[in-house]
Amino acid sequence: MYKIVEKAVLTPVTKKFVVLAPMIAKKAEPGQFVIVRNGEKGERIPLTIADFDRAKGTITIVFQEVGRSTADLGLLREGDSILDVVGPLGLPAELPASGRVACVAGGVGVAPTYPKAKAMHERGVKVISIVGARSSDLLIMEKEMGAVSDELHICTDDGSRGFHGFVSEKLRELLQGGARFDEVIAIGPLPMMSATVEVTRPLGIRTWVSLNPIMVDGTGMCGACRVTVGGKTKFCCVDGPMFDGHQVDFKEAMRRSQMYLEQERLAAQVRHEGCAAGGDR
Amino acid sequence: MPLARTAMPAQDPKERTKNFDEVALGYSEEMAVREAGRCLGCKKPPCVEGCPVFVRIPEFIQRIRERDFAGAIRIIKSTNSLPAICGRVCPQEEQCEKLCVLGKKGEPVAVGRLERFAADWELAAGVERPSPPRWNGKKVAVVGSGPAGLTAAGDLAKLGYKVTIFEALHAPGGVCVYGIPEFRLPKRIVHAEVEYVKALGVELVTDIIVGRSVTIDELFESGYSAVFLGTGAGLPKFMGIPGENLNGVYSANEWLTRTNLMKAYRFPEYHTPIKVGRKVAVVGGGNVAMDAVRCALRLGAEEAHIVYRRSEKEMPARLEELENAKQEGVIFHLLTNPVRVLGDEKGWVRAIECVKMELGEPDASGRRRPVEVKGSEFTMDVETVVMALGTTPNPVLSRSTPGLTVHDWGGLVIDERTGATTREGVYAGGDAVTGSATVILAMGAGKKAAAAIHEYIRGKES
Ligand SMILES: Cc1cc2nc3c(=O)[nH]c(=O)nc-3n(C[C@H](O)[C@H](O)[C@H](O)COP(=O)(O)OP(=O)(O)OC[C@H]3O[C@@H](n4cnc5c(N)ncnc54)[C@H](O)[C@@H]3O)c2cc1C
Ligand code: FES
Question: Is the ipTM above a cut-off of 0.90?
Answer without folding.
Answer: yes
